[in-house]
């Protein structure tokens, strides 16, 4: 039986499902804010899942363009619901398993720069005031275990 799912899309589904399961407390128990105005690029859209205690936020980002986007993609931590950017704030690209560099502004917002390629349009990011290095390490191990 052929289900028309390419190896590329199969891997995207596997990674995304892993992230959603790992952060089920945010995706099913937190506050869901669809289509957040946090992206800076045309054609790039984000949704936000905020923990009940407001300490963490998970972002799903989709590039709907037919071309790659690069540079500053998101400005986070400015809403009254999500955690604000502080010196202890950490931002992670969960899909690729890396910590993102942060430029915290004087307004307590964070500018995040990363690339989203058109053929791989999904990124998932975590904003946490806690040290989430173990989360990223576990994510990277599970992603490369295949």
Architecture overview:
The protein has one domain (7-144): Golgi alpha-mannosidase II (Immunoglobulin-like, Sandwich). The protein contains three helices and nine strands. The chain has helices spanning 7-22, 24-29, 133-144, and strands at 31-36, 44-50, 56-63, 72-76, 90-93, 98-99, 102-104, 110-113, 122-128. The strands form two sheets. The chain has a six-stranded antiparallel β-sheet. Strands 4-8-7 form a three-stranded antiparallel β-sheet, with no helix packed on it. The protein starts with 6 loop residues before the first helix and ends with a helix. 27% of the residues are buried.
Key descriptive features of the protein:
23% helix; 9 strands; 146 residues; single chain; alpha+beta; Immunoglobulin-like
Q: What name goes with the CATH superfamily?
A: Golgi alpha-mannosidase II
The main sheet orders its strands as 1-2-3-9-5-6
Largest sheet: 6 strands, antiparallel
Using the alpha-carbon principal axes, give the shape.
globular
Rg on CA atoms, Å: 15 Å
Strand percentage, roughly? 25-35%
Report the uncertain regions: none
CATH fold assignment: Immunoglobulin-like
Derived from helix and strand composition plus strand pairing, the structural class reads alpha+beta
Percent helix: 10-25%
Total domain modules: 1
CATH class: Mainly Beta
Multimerization status = single chain
User: How many strand segments?
Assistant: 9
Number of H- or I-type helical stretches:
3
